[in-house]
Amino acid sequence: MNIRRMVLLALFVAVASVLHVVEAWLPLPFPVPGIKLGLANVVSLLAIGFYGWRAAIMVAVLRVMIGSLFGGTLFGPAFAMSMGGALFSTMGMGYMYQYHRPAFSVVGVSIIGAVIHNAAQIVIAALLVVSAGLLWYLPYLILFAVLSGAGTGFTAAYILAKMPRHFMDQSVDMERS
Amino acid sequence: MKILTKADIWLIMFLLLFAFAGIGLGLSRLATSGSGTLSAQISLGGKIVQTVPLREGYRQEIQVKNGDHYNTIEINNGKVHIREADCPDQICVRSGWISVATQQIVCLPNRVVIKIMATDSDLDGIAR
Question: Taking CB atoms and an 8 Å cutoff, what residues of chain B touch A104?
Answer without folding.
Answer: 5, 7-8, 11
